[in-house]
Amino acid sequence: MKTKTMATTSMLLATMVLAAACGSGSNNGSEGSSSGAPSSSSASPSGSPSGEASPSASAGASPSSSEKVTLKLMHLWPEASSAGQFKVVSQIIGEYEAAHPNVTIETEVLENEQYKSKLKVLSASNNLPDVGFTWAAGFMEPYVKGNMFEPLNDLLEGDLKDKFVAGTTEAYSFDGQTYALPVELNIVPVYYNKEIFAKYNLQPPQTLDDLKKIIQTLNDNKVTPITLGGKDAWTASFWYMYLADRLGGPDVLDKAVAGSDFSDPSLLEAAKEAQNLVDRKAFVKGFNGLSNDEAKAEFMNGKAAMYAMGTWEVPNFTTNPDVPQEFKDKVGFFKFPVAADGKSSVNNWVGGPGVGLFVSQNSKHKEEAKSFVDFFVQKWGEISVTDAGIIPATKVDTSAIKLPPLFIDLLNELNNASKVTLYLDVQMKPGAASEHYNLVQALLGKAITPEDFVKKQDAALKAGK
Amino acid sequence: MEKVMSNKRVIALYVLPSLLLLLGIVYVPIVLTGYYGLNDWDGIGKMTFIGLDNYARLLKDGVFWSSAGHSLLFALLSAVFLALYMAVALVLSGRIKGAQLLRKIYLIPMLLSSVAIAQLWLKIYHPTNGILNGLLESLGVEDTPDWLADPSIVLGALFVPILWQYAGFYILIYYAALKNIPASLTEAARIDGANSRQVALRIKLPLVREVVKVTIVLAVVGSLKYFDLIYVMTDGGPNQASEVMASYMYHKAFREFDYGYGSAIGFFLLLVCLVATWIIRRLTATKDPIQYS
Predict the structure, then answer these.
(1) Where do the TM regions start and end (chain B) (predicted)?
(2) Which of A127, A173, A304, A428 is the one with CA 20 to 30 A from A65?
(3) How far is the C-alpha of A84 from the C-alpha of A385, rounded, in Å?
(4) Which CATH number fits domain A66-184+354-396: 1.10.287.370, 3.40.50.10420, 3.40.190.10, 3.30.720.210?
(5) What pLDDT score does A337 carry?
(6) pTM of the predicted model as reported, rounded to 2 decimal places
(7) Separation between Cα atoms, residue A465 and residue A460, nearest integer Å
(8) Best residue in B4, B53, B254 to probe A by mutation, most A CBs within 10 Å?
(9) What residue numbers bound the domain in which B112 lies?
(10) Are B182 and B126 in contact (CB under 8 A)?
(11) What is the mean pLDDT of chain A?
């Protein structure tokens, strides 16, 4: 009996310890989320830890310091789907850790959509990683307004002065402060399968009428003309954006978002034109139910002839060793065709800086984090193009590096670009962007009329959310 | 030992860990969600107290009501399907050959994670390469449906894998309950001349009534707050045609930074679930519990 009691008590004790650990853990968790509001309403509490951290930060600057620092980095390039980027990131981390033996960098990798969600969830509980990636403009605005990101102007004025391509950091600036540093610059060409085009005697289209003829020919021969992952509505938005640009001129979309006014007649025309393409069976069957990856597979399998996507896909068509060379040789690109009487030029692109690096306002190791960002941006600018085929937002000396021809061509197009219109969903505030996704899906799914499309988009912009 | 167990302090010690966990993980967040629902908050910046404005907005929000309609339809369907599961369990619990194997086959979907099931069914529903459309084409159907892209059928297409996912769970519960019925009762009935149908309907079903009640609540409440397969397979799309309450809440809170409104939806969802539970309890209440033994 006595031993039994002993056993029971010791078990009890163990349970208590466990419970205490769990209890305090969950308490911390809920406190974290509840304190999200108060701490951000007064920016100083989140500022004060940085005051405490500054001694350690200055110590971190001197390499002799042996204080161990662990930086958390979250990025969006899983090894399986973005091998090139993943490798470059790992390499940069490796080099940085070698140069700063006291710093360990922990990474968490999530695919695009999950990354976006997780970032929001973490920010709600004030748990952002020390360093992470954000999208520009509308996407990051709530984070900036909520004092989640640290201004990085000192880096821009220091080591990174004049390193960026002109006009790339502006999309990350609010009230003269730059809160993230871009690592990518992308435009959206239409890739096409040269073999399919050759088989049916087709030339890359110059005008929308050409494009419609191509669609007709391909449909007559039971080839999917264009693959599109409408479930990820931002890909469908490319098509609407290009049509709006080609019909309404290079400023029509920027003006619409800036002025919260979607009433320009060419925006309605573009919506009609988009449905016209759907009526002509331009897009792959069931596109509104396909994710971008599923849609891409149709192009990679050679089943679909065209695919409009950002230049971040170029590695898959040039350097990615997992893609067979015979497919890579088939891929070409063309600039989105112009409308016969349109006001725009073929050298206007949809695109913009992609993701940029931010440093969390709450980071306990801000100096190290900033130094890492500085290092990352420079290193990335040196190796991303050659190693991963990604156009960095920093200036690239094209004469000094060797690149696949498709890549050089696109890089030259970028140099000749007369205007790059930033993605609509990035330009808009989150509420309006979300409505834009729904509306584009509905438009292409013919669930609403073009008139309702512009009316509802107008209302969503005016709601100011 | 008995002394230890009857000591109030010891009882408190045993209860405390799970109580703390439950409080921290379930009840505190519920209260907080209720509070957030009364605020205009983007999840990051400053909160502004706006009273019941979010709920007023909710009542006028057409998309919310259509998603609530989808959830209710789904809850109803899963409750109706329980009858089918009971039928399967009745057959399995009888002395038929291969019952063991069949039981395992029915249970397998439950062992898969939701995401795996979603991926599986995405492949089945794929508009051009999918098994389903392949089958239809080989049967000569010209214009095969776009299962997940057509707003008029997407909901039905989603219900199938969800019902399939949980079928095994309910069949197993019913099977266990039916196996628990003392053989003496069914044998006595048979000796009195009852046939199999009578044994099933008059003896077995009344005896597992309490279990049925619980499963109805589980199925209805589970369906009302269902999220995972829908999130992975359609993300509420196309154009919100397959949005349910939980996915709408998620979209508002985490896609549109409307955390306050999202919390209001979440709290409303909780109330709906509580009311549904209460109604089911009332509807299935029995005056005199059956006692056969």
Answers:
(1) 12-38, 72-93, 105-122, 153-177, 259-280
(2) A127
(3) 10
(4) 3.40.190.10
(5) 94
(6) 0.76
(7) 8
(8) B254
(9) 63-283
(10) no
(11) 80
**Distances in whole angstroms, Cα of residue B22 to Cα of each of A127, B16, B69, B146, B214:** 23, 10, 31, 44, 21
B219 in any annotated domain: yes
Output B237 or A331, whichever has higher pLDDT.
A331
Handedness of CA A255, A261, A266, A270 (dihedral sign): positive
Rounded-to-integer distance, Cα A332 and Cα A338, Å: 18
User: Chain B residue with minimal CA distance to A301?
Assistant: B129
A-facing residues of B in 239-258 (CB < 8 A) are 239-241, 251, 254-258
Asked if pLDDT for residue B292 goes beyond 80, the answer is no
Query: Given an 8 Å threshold on Cβ–Cβ distance, is B17 in contact with A445?
Result: no
Buried b (16+ CB within 10 A) or exposed e, A393-411: bbebeeeeeebeebbeebb
Task: Give the residue range(s) of CATH 3.40.190.10 domains in chain A.
Answer: 66-184+354-396, 188-350+424-463
Q: Residue type for B94, please?
A: G
Q: To which H or E segment does residue A87 belong?
A: helix A83-99
Going by the DSSP 8-state scheme, the letter that residue A136 receives in this structure is S
From A350's Cα to the closest Cα of chain B, the distance in A is 23
Residue A363's pLDDT band, with cuts at 50, 70 and 90, is confident
- Which of A 118-157 lie inside 8 A of B, CB atoms? 120-121, 123-124, 142-143, 145-148
Using DSSP bridges, classify how beta strands B39-40 and A419-422 pair: parallel, antiparallel or unpaired.
unpaired
Contact A178, A205 (CB under 8 A): no
**Highest averaged pLDDT of the listed ranges A271-285, A339-353, A418-432:** A271-285
Inter-chain CB proximity A30 and B21 less than 8 Å: no
Instruction: Tell whether B273 is covered by a domain.
Output: yes
A189 vs chain B: nearest CA distance in angstroms? 25
Question: Domain A188-350+424-463: which topology?
Answer: D-Maltodextrin-Binding Protein; domain 2 (3.40.190)
Of A143, A230, A431, the CB nearest to B238: A230
CB B89 within 8 A of CB B178: yes
SS3 A210: helix
- Bridge partners of A37? none
Residues 42-61 of B with CB under 8 A from A: 42-47
Q: Which of A8, A41, A147 sits opposite B4 (nearest CB)?
A: A8
User: Which pLDDT value is given to residue A46?
Assistant: 36
Domain count, chain B: 1
Given the structure tokens 């979250």, which residue do they identify? A74
Whether A23 contacts chain B with CB within 8 A: yes
Local structure of residue A94 (DSSP, 8 states):
H
Contact assignment for B24 to A26 by CB distance below 8 Å: yes
Q: How far apart are CA A135 and CA A429, in angstroms?
A: 12
Domain contains B291: no
In this complex, is the C-beta atom of B29 within 8 Å of any C-beta atom belonging to chain A? yes
pLDDT of residue A102: 86
pLDDT at residue A37 tops 50: no
Q: Over pLDDT 90: what percentage of chain B?
A: 57
In-domain check, residue B52: no
Q: Distance from A10 to chain B by nearest Cα, in Å?
A: 13
**ipTM value greater than 0.95:** no
